# Entry
Amino acid sequence: MVAAARAQQHWWFVVIAAAALLMVTMGARQSLGLFVSPLNTATGLGIVSISFALAVGQFIWGAIQPIAGAAADRYGPGRVLAVGVLTMAAGLAATPFIDSGFGLTIALGFLMAAGAGAASFSVLIGATAQRVPVSARGTASGVINAGGSFGQFVFAPLAQKLIGLSGVLGLLWLALLSLAALPLAWLLRRSPEAAAAQQAASAADGGLRKAVAGALRDRSYLLLHAGFCTCGFHIAFLVTHLPGEVALCGLPASVAGWSLALIGLANIAGCLAAGYWVNRYRSKMVLFWMYASRAALVLVYLAAPKTELTFYLFAIGLGFTWLATVPPTAAVVGKLFGTRYLATLFGLTLLSHQIGGFFGAWLGGIAVVEQGSYLWMWYADALLAAAAALFNLPIREAKVVRTAPA
# Structure
């Protein structure tokens, strides 16, 4: 109890370390779409093969989340995060030397994606939730996600610059930069006192298997999965194919790099706002308005002239909710089931997110090859965003009780 109280006194230090680690892993991962054209030029594998490798990566990034979360719940987050960083760096470093679709799928689709997933939301949010006071969890989650968004803001133009200097070999530099996150994994390790307390709690509550089985029978949890799945479709389609959309509109590649950077910058504000809103409003309503705004913005984009200004404004608008769906989604999971197995149960929602991500990345590549444009993908994106908004309305969630400041 004394160790837990001491940890909560310094919760901000843990949150900053988690945000910094997510900045590196998400920054590198969300910049991969910029390498689609250079990889195609260097390997001649074709857009569909490269899109498939990245689509597999979208799925694997989600599939590893509950596994990494369960490992962190059992063995502590420090080891899981360190292994994730090393695996991600290995996948990035191997990619420039691969000349087959299968090899690319292994390097980017499995190694890089699995490593980035193991050092991502489920483990980081689970690691911090048990060290942060209940009243500050929404804020903490928002700050962590803002770190991931800042990584996208920094890494997207950096990756574009590295591509201009060395083509696909820029991935080697991304691998080296990723290794800078290793000391942060050590800072997020679990104390022996906390490990002993969690083992005792597991014996008392029936363990992880019982918690997962109960969650999968919960209607609200399944509706949350459905909405998050469509969110994954939206984000993966954009992060993979926005550079291709920019090229089809006859604009320079730098527009794609800066658009992705602006998405990350806008999402810093969005994540911080989401953390604030989660503390004041029901999370399901926060999710409803986020998804509804995406549907509206896509329709506005389709009707607008395709200029540089349009892409930048579109990026800022969408960027505000880009990763900002994570704090309210994690908050709903925490309210439904508590924080003991949050890393695992939130990891399962991320798996659903990335199943949608697989189809968003893969189908985007098929659409542009078969039809010469992404038009029908944009229509599907708007429709699914509207559906995601509606999925959240029936979720069972109590109203937020606001306490007066002391």
Q: What stands out?
A: The domain at 2-189+206-392 is CATH 1.20.1250.20 (Growth Hormone; Chain: A;). The radius of gyration is 20 Å.
